[in-house]
Amino acid sequence: MNYQKTHYLTSAVDEAGLPHDSGIEVAFIGRSNAGKSSAINTIVGLKGLARTSKTPGRTQMINYFAIDEDRHLVDLPGYGYAKVPRPIQERWTENINNYLKNRKSLRGLILVMDIRHPLQPSDEQLLQWALNYGVHVHVLLTKADKLTRQAMIKMLRDVQEALRPLNNVTCQAFSSQNRYGLDEAHELLEKWFTETAE
Question: Which domains does the chain carry?
Fold first, then answer.
């Protein structure tokens, strides 16, 4: 699959503005400042596809990117940033809940967490939403380069152990800085984009 052909398609503020519910899509979501946009850009091999910002909470819309006619990546708004006004937080909650519940073309959700601060309460809430709706989740522990290799391996094992009781959840370490875990992420996407729906 040629990810470098990925291009911006459209943005939506809510479910009504989403593209036609067909084909296969994989969505990325995570706490603000967890490195979600950088992870997307690294995975597709395009620096400026998903906009990165040092200001947490910048992504407020659902952004769609097309790999080809039938396969899409979706950048969902970041969450967990306290300075975002409450009405926006409430709208985000409703929109994401509806998306996870109703989107038939959603094949899997990549839940981005900073490996130094994984499984925050908001992460666990999001994880539970997805599992309640039968969505497969892959936890991407970003910024792995910020830890020593030994510390990274320990944190990965700890998170994997915490997730073990859950069905349909996988986990890996990842770094946009040194591209650690990129092949594993590509293998997962290849699987989700090519296997038939259950």
Answer: 3-194 (3.40.50.300)
Q: pLDDT tens for residues 76-122?
A: 988 876 567 788 778 888 889 999 999 999 999 999 999 999 999 99
C-alpha 1 chain-centroid distance: 19
Is residue 35 within 8 A of residue 112, CB to CB? The reply is: yes
Say whether pLDDT at 198 is over 50. Answer: no
Tokens of 30: 């995570």
Type of residue found at 160: Q
**CB 159 within 8 Å of CB 62:** no
How far is 124 from 113, CA to CA, in rounded Å? 11
Residue 61 banded pLDDT, cuts 50, 70, 90: confident
* Contact indicator for 168, 135 with CB cutoff of 8 Å: yes
DSSP 3-state assignment of 138?
Answer: strand
Burial of 130 (0-12, 13-18, 19+ CB in 10 A): buried
Q: Which residue has the tokens 């699987």?
A: 191
Helix (H, G, I), strand (E, B) or coil at 128: helix
> CB of 137 within 8 A of CB of 131?
yes
